[in-house]
Specification:
single chain, about 200 residues, mainly beta, 7-stranded antiparallel sheet, 6-stranded antiparallel beta barrel, 13 strands, about 15% helix, globular
């Protein structure tokens, strides 16, 4: 379980393919050592540490994860947002984030607005996706590349959904939002409460 408050970024130093899986080796950005079996969100995707060598650690993404996220497009040298799992005795500064990415989205607009940054994204919003709870509501929460953000200007046109977010300078500087440009693919995790409500409506 995560909060969507990104702690820092980690750089990918090696990518290996094994059958349909991909092993990502990253440099540990934390001042303290990580441990085997530890859960860390990478661009919002919960992955388990499977190997540690010095200041490097390795996580594995299976085909389902690669299909639903932007991890399959990562290259050596890329930076990902990272967040360790929550401690139960800390404040929940963002919102409830599972680290289970629902689908990718494509950036269609980026602009600076008097010191802050505005991003607009396009995602798959077919009827069956909406029925799963894959949609946004104004002033609701959405997790993009592991960052907990407030929704603005949500819209649906045909099979496409649209969501905009505004990024403060601190978030822009200390996450990989500063590398996002038009055409960049990001990871979306919709609000778990909305997904439960959508599912209940299908069953009642």
């Amino acid at each position: 379980m995560f909060s969507g408050i990104v702690e820092t970024m980690a750089q990918v130093v090696k990518i290996e393919t094994e059958q349909t899986n991909k092993h990502f080796t990253l440099r540990n950005p934390y001042s303290e050592p990580l441990s085997i079996d530890q859960s860390i969100a990478h661009n919002g995707v919960c992955l388990t540490v499977v190997k540690i060598e010095g200041d490097l650690y390795t996580v594995t993404a299976m085909q389902e994860t690669l299909n639903r996220s932007n991890l399959g497009a990562l290259k050596e040298g890329d930076w990902v947002n990272v967040e360790r799992s929550m401690l139960l005795n800390e404040r929940l500064d963002g919102h409830i984030v599972q680290g289970h990415v629902d689908q990718p989205a494509r950036c269609i607009e980026v602009k600076e607005t008097d010191g802050s940054w505005y991003y607009r994204f396009e995602y798959d919003s077919r009827k069956e996706m909406i029925q799963r709870g894959y949609f946004c509501v104004d002033k609701g929460s959405v997790c993009i590349n592991g960052v907990s953000l407030t929704v603005c200007e949500p819209d649906v046109q045909g099979d496409k959904g649209y969501v905009s977010v505004c990024i403060i300078p601190y978030t822009h500087e200390y996450t990989n939002f500063k590398y996002i440009e038009v055409g960049t693919i990001v990871n979306l995790e919709f609000d778990i409460l909305g997904k439960y409500i959508a599912r209940m409506q299908q069953l009642l």
